[in-house]
């Protein structure tokens, strides 16, 4: 029995990053890139490492570049943490697992350290493989919570639920993480949005070496927890953009959607420090006439373009600053 599962990259369209602050978001899964997991029975439980998990390097500079893009440990800790969290879930739910071992390996085409959620994709794909192997059904709204707990509790990664929700649900999803909803049912309200109603979207990501994500929310979170008025009010405004965006998509109000995407980033600059590299992505895209906002924590932008001529301008202009432009494949 050979099990193969997959999870895709994601991009936040509106409301990002309010998901970690009981807000609202709209996100899309990006099938241009994905993480896959292969699992098959074996005498012992074996996690197969990939080249990026090794400790042999061509040179000092090779080590530096590898750590900059992949972190210190590659993807094996993600798989290991997901297996542990799956076992703990089954134990808590009194699900008795048969004593069957397996070998598991991962592969990924998701660009790393640019905010496309490559780490959580590996974890989602691992959970899906384990669910198939042991024939365990985890309720779909619960699965993103387990993926987030894998990252935050096991690996110390600061993150929100948005990425994990869209990677579990796929397509395009409007998410409401209001605290009263979360307290009542343990997860948010997740509403699929017809992807056929989406405008012409582009994604552009930095092809230079990135830095590990998961740290940039820390200062804002501290200020939010302290009740700092600027932070609390700004995140509430960002969250409401997702609500407005859901209605604009349904009503096919393209001018409003463009305005909301741009406003999302502009609000973000009130409370977050934007480095020069990320700012240049936004400014270059907007100079071509497109809207632009962060698709995640930085390194990747998303926006709306009008026609093929504008898309071509985006390709050319962003390539000059070492950024690649794609049309996201959303089903």
TrEMBL record:
Keywords carried by this UniProt record: ATP-binding, Kinase, Nucleotide-binding, Transferase
UniProt-listed SUPFAM superfamilies: GHMP Kinase, C-terminal domain, Ribosomal protein S5 domain 2-like
Alphabetical list of InterPro entries matching this protein: GHMP_kinase_C_dom, GHMP_kinase_C_sf, GHMP_kinase_N_dom, Glucuronokinase-like, Ribosomal_Su5_D2-typ_SF
Residue ranges annotated for the GHMP kinase N-terminal domain, each copy included: 78-171
Keyword Nucleotide-binding: yes
Keyword Lipid biosynthesis: no
Domain GHMP kinase C-terminal, first and last residues per copy: 248-309
A matching Pfam family: GHMP_kinases_C
GO molecular function: ATP binding; glucuronokinase activity
Secretion signal span: none
UniProt protein name: GHMP kinase
Source organism (scientific name): Spirosoma rhododendri
